[in-house]
Amino acid sequence: MPVADVPVTDMPVPDVPLPHRPLGILAALPQELGDLIEAMRAESGVRTVTHGQRDYHLGTVHGAPCVVTLARIGKVAAAATVSALIHVFDVQAVIFTGVAGGVGAQVRVGDIVVANELVQHDLDASPLFPRFEVPLLGVSRFAANAALANALAAACERFVTEEGAVVAARFGTREPRVHRGLIVSGDRFVASAAAVIALRDALPDALAVEMEGAAIAQVCYEYGVPCAVVRTISDTADDHAPASFVSFLTEIAGAYSNAILKRFLEAKRVS
Ligand code: ADE
């Protein structure tokens, strides 16, 4: 049967030979993954399993057994996808990569933010529970796994040292800086100066805003799976954000992701 005629199935999972406890790597959109799946195809070949309307790509990339997938946009999509990574593919840890809006005063387009903590900025069950707290879980801030976040940040620093000047010249951005701290997530594309001020008022240490990370971190927390989130800044969440986001996503995001994940995964192989 020609490949195009192969039906898309929700493949019964036990039929699929899975690598032993692979690393789960996900992004919201294909541009945010860069060439990761092509690199996997070249290195080990790729087995693709379709489950819950997501394609999960299994193989080895930069020496690491991985399952790579796209969550699509928003907290529910992210939570559903990471739940499948945990339950269907038995991932040992989860890495989320992608772009974000810069919120911290020092955070500019082209910088990189590695999360130490993540909060759902749009979660508010007050006065029943404190603002931002996940009801009945009693947690507002989900910590990234320190070892994974340190390894990701080290990969980002190596990227900046080795290629920062070239990247800045190529894309017309300033030389990238790597920040560590709070990433906030919500089901909203933030695109006004007023909204940024409101976020800074509510969460003064927020460095970046996106739409998935804290949902991933909550699910990983509930199942005891280590996770880390790295975001490249595509916009500063103000009135220019939609245009800046689109051009950064289409022209730049993949190059950052390739450079960071390659260094992160190669270092994992030797550690
Ligand atoms: N991801 C990238 N930019 C964003 C923004 N401004 N708001 C929410 N998510 C984003």
Properties at a glance:
271 residues; alpha/beta; Rossmann fold; 8 helices; 37% helix; globular; disordered N terminus; binds adenine
Overview of the molecule:
The chain is 37% helix and 25% strand. It is of the alpha/beta class and 271 residues long. It has a single domain (6-270), classed as Rossmann fold (3-Layer(aba) Sandwich). A 5-stranded mixed β-barrel has the order 5-9-8-6-10, surrounded by 5 helices. The N and C termini lie far apart (43 Å). The structure holds adenine (ADE).
In short:
With 271 residues, the protein is α/β, with parallel strands linked by helices. It has helices at 30-33, 36-43, 75-87, 146-171, 193-202, 213-223, 241-251, 253-270; strands at residues 23-27, 47-51, 54-61, 64-70, 93-102, 112-120, 142-143, 178-185, 206-210, 227-235.
Helical proportion, percent range:
25-40%
Question: Total domains, how many?
Answer: 1
Secondary-structure element sequence? EHHEEEHEEEHEHEHEHH
Largest sheet: 5 strands, mixed, barrel
Helix and strand arrangement:
Blueprint: E1 23-27, H1 30-33, H2 36-43, E2 47-51, E3 54-61, E4 64-70, H3 75-87, E5 93-102, E6 112-120, E7 142-143, H4 146-171, E8 178-185, H5 193-202, E9 206-210, H6 213-223, E10 227-235, H7 241-251, H8 253-270
Parallel strand pairs: 1-4, 1-5, 5-10, 6-8, 8-9
Antiparallel strand pairs: 2-3, 3-4, 5-9, 6-7, 6-10
Helix pairs in contact: 3-6, 4-8
Bound molecules: adenine.
Adenine binds at residues 99-101, 189-191, 209-211, 234-235, 237, 241, 245.
